[in-house]
Amino acid sequence: MKGLLCKDLSGIFVPLLVFTAMLLAGTALKIPYFLAFSALMIGMLPIDGMPKDAVSRWESYQLTMPVSRFGIVTEKYLLMLFCTAVSAVLLSIGMLRFLLQGEMSVSDYTLWIVRACMGGILIPAVYFPVCFRFGYGKGKAVYILLIVSFAVLITGELAVTEAAEAHGLLSAKVLHGCFPLLAGNTAVSRLLCMLLDADSSQIIAVSVSGALILTLLSWLLSLWGFRRREF
Amino acid sequence: MNAIEISNIAKKYKGFSLGPLSLTLPAGCILGLIGENGAGKTTTIKALLGMNHPDSGEIRLLGQPLSADLRNETGVVLDEVGLPENLRIPQIEKIMKYSFRNWKSDVFAEYIKKFNLPENKRFRTFSKGMKMKLGLAIALSHDAKLLILDEPTAGLDPLVREELLDILNEFTRDEGHAVLISSHIVSDLEKVCDYIAFLHKGQLMLCEEKDRLLEQYGFLQTTAENLDALEPAAIRGKRVTQYGAEALVDRKLVPQTFDIRPVTIEELFVYMAKEG
């Protein structure tokens, strides 16, 4: 597994430097978008390696090396956790300026970091099992779907926030107004209302434990799929 | 000890089935796997490497069942060497050093020098021959006891192919070493192999010592009438044209009055495959 980690780390080294520079630029120029985007991209770097592995045929070549299928899958998840940790550390350093200058509260600061890291975990956690079981071809379709869903979610969230600011309403009420389909006493709407009305510490706790459970499930699913895959 | 023991492996795909197939490769020998496109050579090799899962049967390499750890003792070169394209030789060596228990940096450096491979160029800029040489250098630099090579000579020029065959000969000087090599270029295999296995439409037609095959079979050029007069069991494959007849025959079953010339492994395969 050490060899695989070495290979993947050398593959992400240059993009890691580029996104770190972008993140620092975001801090210097006071552009939070740069910070969040770079952090998200660092978290998603392990995904970038999968198509390259498929194109170069490393996917099958690595099976000729003394590493088990368990090791191959686990290595990608370790890389994912490593990138998430790097992303969290860099983002905390980068956003420290906003915190120290009083432009951001501690809870907002923490929320930004958690959100960016969750994005970095969420996409690989869904993408990896598909890739490990069916290969990069099908994985790519899932990846595109995820990116589109992510964009829709972010747009939706922005709409909710803007509406809340405009009407000075509570976020749960705004949610019902913006997404009428989610109105009513359904499980989804109750969960979303809970999340929107929760304080930042609750959101952080839910996000972190959710991410951990998702990672674990995704890893198990990837192991199951990759053990059945044939080359 | 046998380097490879395959017992009754079978694998079914849509439109193709391999086996049941059994073969054995003793240590110290080179086995050439010959077959037309789609005969099942790569499927067999992938089964040996654990890349596919046979429906039935058992595989043992170097006396052990397949495992990740066993790959420390096998060197593999696939038809396409799948190394990361953006890396250079020193980076690739580092990966291998961390992967193989018995990695020998000095041996690797010798092969890189011998094969004249550029250390400062990225793998993607390598020619097909250079990629194959690098794959071979990796396979030979970790004290492997068994080499498994899938079409390693495909796309290589004759000089490089000759060089590769010399290396394989040198490798099997150690009696504990063995090589399984598949190739379309049957003449290459004829030069180095001790054993020949013919795969045809997923079935193993034969697996014999090369010398015994060359001794047993001969090539007969005669008339169609003469050929008809021969015992049917003597003929393993034939081609009749308006100008005469050619047949692959079992020397023992053909009267000595016939002029039988030695057969090449390529002729042997072509005629047997046509008959099969």
Model description:
The complex is a heterodimer of chains A (231) and B (276). By secondary structure, chain A is mostly helical. Chain A has one domain. Helices cover 84% and strands 0% of the residues of chain A. Chain A is built from 10 helices and no strands. Chain A has helices at residues 2-28, 32-43, 45-55, 58-61, 69-100, 106-134, 136-167, 171-178, 187-197, 200-228. Chain A is globular and about 60 Å long. Residues 177-182 of chain A have low confidence and may be disordered. Chain B is of the alpha/beta class. In chain B, 31% of the residues lie in helices and 32% in strands. Chain B has helices spanning 41-48, 89-99, 105-114, 128-139, 158-171, 186-192, 210-216, 224-229, 265-275, and strands at residues 2-13, 16-26, 30-35, 56-61, 64-65, 74-77, 146-150, 178-182, 195-200, 203-209, 217-222, 235-241, 244-250, 260-262. In chain B, the strands form 3 sheets. Chain B has a 6-stranded mixed beta sheet, sandwiched between helices. Chain B has a 4-stranded antiparallel beta sheet with strand order 2-1-4-5, with helices on one face. In chain B, helix 3 packs antiparallel against helix 4 (128-139). Chain B is elongated and about 65 Å long. Chain B starts with a strand and ends with a helix. Classes of the chains: A mainly alpha (231), B alpha/beta (276). Chain A binds chain B through residues 2-7, 10-11, 52-53, 55-68, 71, 228, 230-231, and chain B through 46, 49-53, 67-72, 74, 76, 78, 80-87, 91, 94-101, 123-124.
